[in-house]
């Protein structure tokens, strides 16, 4: 039995709005934001603040809901027409009989359209989620019963209908009026059930207030001061000192770093300018071809590669990337030193971990490269060869030597890592420290200039620390504040926050993958969580969220993960890499899949 089947069997026994791109000069921008636009431009498009434009556009009513509202209004009119025409005064008029026949046919068509609409809703939201609302279920029964009644009414003539049937017909017509309330509530509620929420930081609110204030003044000095404040708030530089007078001396006392120039790939490196390294690492040809064919596919079956190559698969993947991008020759990195460093990284991932193992490192690195190449961040971020090395190495090392327990567990058990790093992102600090220890021990960057090394180290440490999920909300709000600024520049001053965002997005990317891979990762991560929960129970510690195998519904956990973390983050990420929008449907498709599984996993929980 395979490892995945074992995990699945164990779980069965134990049980768990898109940012829009609008052309420059579009009236839509002007109508929504006036002249407040980001200066960030790619290929003639303005990037607009995700939350604001998404909220504004989602307040509009989708086409399907407009059609439903129109049908409800027409349906209501037909009900009143039927009531009025079936009075005693109208029974003997043949014209009224014809009119009643026509209204019944129209009514039948409308009811059939309602059935079609319910089918579409079930497909979009999942059968279980749709009918979890008892009014939706009651409404479906009314519609089916009404269709049966009309068909009988059209086919049975004369005295075939008794007084009881007439009473039933009146009751059903009255009940149909509930459709008006049901459709109105669905327009507001069903489309967004379990998936729509808004989290805004105080920074975003302050920026919005200051922009509104700027619109109220005509004095250019006041507007300039407000814009100055907005810039510093969005740049997160509110607490940096403003130095006047003897600036150089003050900088020395305050230990402020001098402005550092952006390092380019052409910058001079150490004293070894004449060293030339080959970009050939002698990868097995079959593996090289496999990478070439599948490396940009989200449904890549890398699990089978791990069975064949074990931890060396990470080394092989990184060698392929560095060969492909000519990083050995350009950055003057020794392929032998690189292999040694990667082998140490790969072997330091714990094989016994169900989730935080070398396959996860492979997956995250593969996803980061997908963002770079397939989503064109290489052009958007104006990536140098040094930037490539930072993104790839940081991704490969982001969970190295992970013990299989989260930071909460380490803190509560007074683990040595928690004691070493003072309970502050202990795992992530350890991952970063381990990477740079291996870099030093293998002399990987022996030919780097001090400037290049400091640039690499600064960006890499920041990236790895950004993978701490406890920092997700805070870092997410910082990202949104930068995107809301007028000077957001992913190729220069905001390159660092973009690096952090890409790695964190890759680290939470399981719902972004086809279900065959996503489902495997789900059982792996929950299996690891449950092992921690068992340990916490044995030690008498509070059981961490999702770590209790007796209460965690697998499907609900994934829907919550999508709704509250992945989908909002990826919607915002599209502002940086717009091509991402082409792949977003996969997240919705996966959510529908899990929605259909909720009842199954709840049954397993109830019967254990």
Automatic annotation (TrEMBL):
Instruction: Please tell me which top-level EC class this enzyme sits in.
Output: hydrolase
As to how many cofactors bind and how, the note says: Binds 2 divalent metal cations per subunit. Site 1 may preferentially bind zinc ions, while site 2 has a preference for magnesium and/or manganese ions.
Tell me where the transmembrane regions lie. 67-85, 105-123, 135-154
Catalytic activity, EC: 3.1.4.-
* One annotated Gene Ontology cellular component of this protein: membrane
Q: Which cofactor does it need?
A: a divalent metal cation
Q: Name one GO molecular function term.
A: 3',5'-cyclic-nucleotide phosphodiesterase activity
Where does the PDEase domain start and stop, copy by copy? 279-601
One Gene Ontology term from the biological process aspect of the record: signal transduction
Where is the protein situated, by its record's location annotation? Membrane
Keywords tagged on the record = Hydrolase, Membrane, Metal-binding, Transmembrane, Transmembrane helix
Principal localization reads membrane
Indicate how the chain sits in the lipid bilayer. Answer: Multi-pass membrane protein
**One Pfam family recorded for the sequence:** Ion_trans
Q: Which PANTHER family match?
A: CYCLIC NUCLEOTIDE PHOSPHODIESTERASE
The entry's family comment says: Belongs to the cyclic nucleotide phosphodiesterase family.
Name of the molecule in the record: Phosphodiesterase
List the source organism: Paramecium pentaurelia
């Amino acid at each position: 039995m395979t490892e995945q089947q074992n995990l699945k069997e164990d779980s069965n026994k134990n049980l768990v709005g898109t940012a829009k791109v609008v052309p420059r000069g579009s009236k839509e921008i002007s109508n929504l934001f006036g002249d407040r636009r980001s200066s960030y431009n790619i290929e003639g498009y303005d990037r607009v603040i995700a939350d604001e434009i998404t909220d504004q556009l989602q307040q509009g009513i989708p086409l399907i809901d407009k059609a439903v509202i129109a049908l409800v209004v027409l349906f209501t009119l037909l009900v009143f027409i039927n009531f009025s025409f079936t009075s005693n005064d109208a029974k003997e008029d043949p014209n009224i009989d014809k009119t009643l026949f026509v209204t019944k046919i129209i009514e039948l068509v409308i009811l059939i359209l309602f059935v079609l609409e319910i089918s579409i809703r079930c497909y979009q939201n999942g059968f279980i989620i749709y009918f979890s609302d008892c009014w939706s279920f009651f409404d479906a029964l009314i519609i089916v019963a009404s269709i049966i009644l009309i068909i009988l009414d059209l086919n049975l003539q004369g005295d075939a209908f008794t007084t009881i049937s007439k009473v039933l017909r009146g009751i059903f017509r009255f009940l149909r009026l509930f459709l008006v309330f049901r459709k109105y509530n669905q327009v507001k509620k069903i489309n967004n059930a379990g998936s729509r929420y808004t989290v805004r930081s105080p920074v975003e609110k302050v920026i919005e207030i200051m922009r509104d204030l700027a619109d109220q003044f005509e004095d250019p000095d006041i507007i300039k001061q407000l814009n100055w404040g907005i810039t510093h708030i969005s740049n997160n530089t509110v607490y940096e000192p403003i130095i006047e007078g003897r600036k150089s001396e003050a900088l020395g006392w305050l230990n402020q770093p001098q402005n550092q120039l952006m390092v380019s790939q052409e910058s001079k490196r150490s004293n070894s300018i004449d060293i030339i390294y080959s970009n050939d690492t002698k990868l097995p040809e079959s593996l090289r071809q496999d990478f070439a064919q599948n490396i940009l596919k989200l449904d890549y079956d890398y699990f089978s590669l791990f069975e064949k190559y074990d931890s060396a698969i990470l080394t092989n993947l990184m060698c392929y990337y560095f060969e492909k991008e000519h990083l050995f020759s350009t950055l003057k990195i020794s392929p032998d030193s690189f292999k040694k460093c990667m082998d140490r990284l790969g072997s330091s991932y714990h094989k016994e971990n169900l989730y935080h193992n070398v396959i996860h490192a492979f997956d995250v690195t593969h996803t980061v490269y997908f963002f770079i190449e397939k989503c064109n961040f290489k052009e958007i971020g104006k990536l140098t060869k040094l930037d490539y090395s930072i993104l790839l190495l940081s991704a490969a090392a982001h969970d190295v030597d992970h013990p299989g327990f989260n930071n909460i567990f380490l803190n509560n058990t007074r683990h040595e890592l928690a004691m070493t790093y003072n309970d502050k992102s202990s795992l992530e600090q350890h991952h970063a420290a381990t990477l740079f220890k291996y870099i030093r021990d293998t002399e990987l960057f022996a030919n780097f200039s001090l400037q290049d090394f400091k640039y690499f180290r600064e960006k890499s440490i920041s990236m790895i620390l950004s993978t701490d999920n406890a920092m997700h909300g805070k870092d997410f709000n910082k990202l949104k504040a930068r995107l809301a600024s007028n000077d957001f520049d992913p190729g220069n001053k905001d390159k660092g926050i973009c690096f952090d965002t890409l790695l964190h997005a890759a680290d939470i990317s399981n719902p972004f993958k086809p279900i065959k891979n996503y489902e495997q990762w789900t059982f792996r991560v929950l299996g690891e969580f449950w092992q921690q929960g068992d340990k916490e129970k044995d030690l008498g510690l509070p059981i961490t969220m999702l770590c209790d195998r007796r209460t965690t519904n697998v499907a609900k956990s994934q829907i919550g993960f999508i709704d509250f973390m992945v989908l909002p983050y990826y919607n915002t990420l599209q502002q940086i890499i717009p091509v991402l929008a082409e792949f977003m449907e996969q997240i919705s498709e996966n959510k529908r899949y899990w929605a259909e599984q909720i009842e199954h996993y709840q049954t397993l929980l109830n019967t254990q």
